[in-house]
Amino acid sequence: MGLLQLVLTVGGFAGTLGSAGVRVAALQLTARAWGRGDRPGVAAALFACLRYGLLVSATVGAGLILLAGPLSRTLLREPRTALALRTVGPLLPRATL
Predict the structure, then answer these.
(1) Sign of CA dihedral 35, 37, 41, 42
(2) At 78, is the secondary structure helix, strand, or coil?
(3) 96: pLDDT strictly greater than 80
C-alpha cells in the first residue's frame, strides 16, 4: 500500500471525525427556524454551527498534528508518514467545512 493511501485514509477518518455531524445539525436547525419564520434564528443557527464545526475540526486537526508521530509508528507502521499527517492537520478545518 502506498504512503499516500495510508495518509489519505487517516486524513479521511480525521475529516469524518472533525465534521461530527455539523452539516446535518445545520440543516435541521436552519430548517426549523425557517419554518417558524424566524429569520434571525436562521442566521444564529448557521453561525452556531459554523463555530461548532471550526472548534471540533480544529481540535481534531491539532490532535492529528500532535499524534502524528505515534500514529505513523504504531497504526500505520511507517514513520515516513508523520510529516504528511502533520501537513493534513492544519488543513482539516478548511476541508471539513
Answers:
(1) positive
(2) coil
(3) no
